[in-house]
Amino acid sequence: MDNEICKVIQNKELTKGKGIYEMVLQSEKIADAAMPGQFIHIRINAGYYPLLRRPISIHSVDKTKGTVSVIYHIKGQGTEELSRVKTDTAMDVMGPLGNGFPLLGNKKCAVVGGGIGTAPLLELAKNLSECDAYLGFRDCVYKIEAFEESCKSVHIATEDGSVGYKGYIIELLEQNIADYEVVYTCGPKVMMKCVVDICRKNKVECYVSIEERMGCGIGACLVCACKVQEENGEWHYKKACKDGPVFHAKEVVFDA
Ligand SMILES: Cc1cc2nc3c(=O)[nH]c(=O)nc-3n(C[C@H](O)[C@H](O)[C@H](O)COP(=O)(O)OP(=O)(O)OC[C@H]3O[C@@H](n4cnc5c(N)ncnc54)[C@H](O)[C@@H]3O)c2cc1C
Ligand code: FES
User: Dihedral of CA 222/223/224/225: which sign?
Assistant: First the structure.
C-alpha cells in the first residue's frame, strides 16, 4: 500500500472544549477506493515522534469532490498535534486500509455507535439503502444532522441527559431490536459487548468494528493481533488491520 500526500481542506473542533475534531483531506484516490468501515493511517509529522502512524476511521467520503473526512478525539500527543494542523498542510496518509463493513442494505439494518465510535457509521449509513441509527454519547453530541440526512430514524442517548434519552443507547436498541435483521456497531468495548449480547439473544446478525493498537496497519508487524473464536469454540489470532477492523460478532472475544 502506497502512501499519499494529501492537502488538509479543513481541520476544526466540533465540540467547544471537548477535543473532538473533524479533518477533511483532499485525495481523489482514497475517496474513490474507500469502503465504509475502512480507515486511513496518518503520519502526524515528519519528525521522530510520534514515529508510528495513527489509525483513524473514514467518517465520510465525497467522491465528486475527491475528499475524505475523519473525526478524532484528542487522546495523546499524536491526536493533539493533529488538532493543530493548519488548512493547506500536506499530510502523509496511507489508505484506505482494512476490510470494512459488509453492505447488507437489503435487510432491516441498525447502526449503533458510542462516542467517537459513531464516526465510521456515517459512511456506512450513507451506503445502506435504509437504516436506523442509535448514537450514544457521554455529555456532548456531534454530527447528528449528517446522520439525520442518511438514516430513516436517529435515536440519541446521553449519559447526562443533555440531549435525547438519559441513559445508555443500548437500552433504546434493546426496546426495538425486534425491528432489525442486521446490527453494525462501533464504540467502547463494554457497549459493543452489550450490543452483541442483545443481538445474540434475539438472533440478529451483528458486525463489530474493533479498535486495537496498531503499528504498520498493513499486516506486517503483528501489533494488532486479536483473539477470534471459531464455530467449534477454538480460538486463534487475526490481524485487526488486515482481517478487520470489522468482524462478525460470533468471532469476537471481548475479554481477550
Ligand atoms: C481501526 C482504528 C480506527 C480508529 N478510528 C478512530 C477514529 O475514527 N477517531 C478517533 O478519535 N480514534 C480512532 N482510533 C483510535 C486512535 O487511533 C487513537 O486514539 C490514536 O492513535 C491515539 O494516538 P495519540 O498519539 O493521540 O495517543 P497515544 O499517546 O498513542 O495514546 C493515548 C492513550 O490512548 C490509548 N490508545 C491509543 N490507541 C488506542 C487504540 N487503538 N485503542 C484504544 N486505546 C488507544 C493509549 O493506550 C493511551 O492510553 C482508531 C483506532 C483504530 C485501530
Ligand atoms: S498493525 Fe501491523 S500487523 Fe496489524
Answer: positive
